[in-house]
Amino acid sequence: MGHKILINSSEIQIILHRLACQLIENHPNLENTVLIGLQPRGVFLAERLISILKNDYQLNDILYGQLDITFYRDDFRRSDKPLEANKTNIDFVVENKNVVFIDDVLFSGRSIRAALTAIQSFGRPKTIELMVLIDRRFSRELPIQPDYSGRQVDVINQEKVKIFWTERDQQDAVYITNIS
Amino acid sequence: MNSLSVPHLLGIKDLNKNDIELIFKTATHFKEIINRPIKKVPSLRDITIANLFFENSTRTKLSFELAEKRLSADVINFSASQSSVSKGETLIDTANNILSMKVDMIVMRHPYVGAGVFLSKNVGATIINAGDGTHEHPTQALLDSYTIQENLGEVSGKKVVIVGDILHSRVALSNIFALKLQGAQIKVCGPLTLIPKHITSLGVEVETDIRKALQWCDVANVLRVQHERMDINYFPSVREYTQLFGINKKMLDSLDKKIVLMHPGPINRGVEITSDVADSEHSVILNQVENGVAVRMAVIYLLAEKIKRN
């Protein structure tokens, strides 16, 4: 099982700052905007972005939640492994808010489809956008595209994109791993 | 670890510790969901569930029905009093007729011990026992333990006294199995006529003094006297029962600690507990009802996961 590095730590820093800039360019001061990190792995990206927005742009009152989509997935009773849920943490309603979903890798688009359903339990958002670190653009099974993307990656289905975060994995890096 | 070890929920006796932990972990996710503005998830939209109640029930039936609906399952309800059972139909025939309408799961309450086991061996559906005679009521025991865990952090090592009619209580037996599995210490307290003769073989102690039992425990689970299951007199009068085993505010105030007071319902106010106790800060009776929906959602969801897709 071979793997090669796709994005290194300093490149990730540049991408995170760019994504933060793009976000506040479209959502000045994040007024009426909420950031939703998708469980489990989108949360790391969301929290990194929030710390940049706080430290570099003094945006201290960011509405941020974590959404778990397990019970909204379309592969319940279809996958070999039972689905494992994570915590949802949204203590506000999203009625008439601009919602930005934040996830690490956009692959088939099915998680985002589930998230679009799940978020409706918290109200009817005004708009929903999607930000991802990695967009595997030729792997889509549904008509879903990101609004903000860190890097577009073209990999074949036998390859897996793995993202490492210092908080959990002691380094920031994106690897491509061969799973065949 | 993230799948139940059983295809049906017939009794706590069939479960292991991991099953209970998995049910509780899943129930916690569902508890968050049922407190959202929109309390529904689409997980079970291709599952149909029949609620077969051959015995009266208010809370359990509503709780199961709500849990099923919150999971987006299709639900059909059946009560024995309005059915062909009163025309002489057998249990298997009734169940098979319902199954031929393409039902995936049956939630059943029945006055006979072992009715759930019998059905699971004779019909091709997932069975959840919602109470079989004086035998087991597994989802009640699960929600009781879940409520203890929620209030005291964990069940292991906690002292639980079950008060009242132990002899006729499926809640008591399921609770004993569940609490034992999680490492709690258990005493039962009630008139000796209402305590099964060999109960100590389950690893529980018998206490006949309600004051001593309350002083000992962290949690008191108070049961109703089941007059409808009594064919002889087990104690002289309800008034005497209340005097000897009823819990009142004065008793609780005299303890040097705060205990958690539970009751599976329906409460006979003024018999096993007084009204002010049922409504006091000790009581978690309404939390039990809320947790009941979340725990039943978890059980239904985890069992549905095991149903093969056609």
Radius of gyration of chain A: 16 Å
Strand content bin of chain A: 25-35%
Strand portion of chain B: 5-15%
Number of domains of chain B: 2
CATH topology heading of chain A: Rossmann fold
- Total DSSP helices of chain B: 11
**What are the segments of chain A in which pLDDT stays under 50 over at least 5 consecutive residues?**
none
Order of helices and strands of chain A: EHEHEEHEEEHE
> What is the strand tally of chain A?
8
Which percent range fits the helix content of chain A? 25-40%
Low-confidence blocks of residues of chain B: none
Major β-sheet of chain A, in short? 5 strands, parallel
Count of the domains of chain A: 1
Overall mean confidence score, pLDDT of chain A:
93
Would you tell me which CATH topology of the largest domain in chain B applies? Answer: Rossmann fold
- Summing up helix and strand content along with how strands pair, one would put the structural category of chain B as alpha/beta
Distance N to C terminus of chain B:
25 Å
Helix-strand makeup class of chain A: alpha/beta
Describe this structure in words.
The complex is a heterodimer of chains A (about 180) and B (about 300). The model of chain A has no long low-confidence stretch (mean pLDDT about 95). In chain A, helix 1 packs across helix 2. Chain A has 4 helices and 8 strands. The longest helix of chain A has 18 residues, at about 10-25. Chain A has helices at about 10-25, 40-55, 110-120, 165-170; strands spanning about 5, 35-40, 65, 100-105, 125-135, 150-155, 160-165, 175-180. Chain A has a single domain (about 5-70, about 85-180), classed as Rossmann fold (3-Layer(aba) Sandwich), CATH 3.40.50. By secondary structure, chain A is an alpha/beta fold. With about 300 residues, chain B is an alpha/beta fold. In chain B, about 40% of the residues lie in helices and about 15% in strands. Chain B has a 5-stranded parallel beta sheet with strand order 7-6-5-8-9. In chain B, strands 2-1-3-4 form a 4-stranded parallel beta sheet, sandwiched between helices. In chain B, strand 3, helix 4 (about 115-120) and strand 4 (about 125-130) form a beta-alpha-beta unit. The longest helix of chain B has 20 residues, at about 285-305. The radius of gyration of chain B is 19 Å and the shape is globular. The chains are: A alpha/beta (about 180), B alpha/beta (about 300). The interface of A and B includes residues 77 and 121 of A.
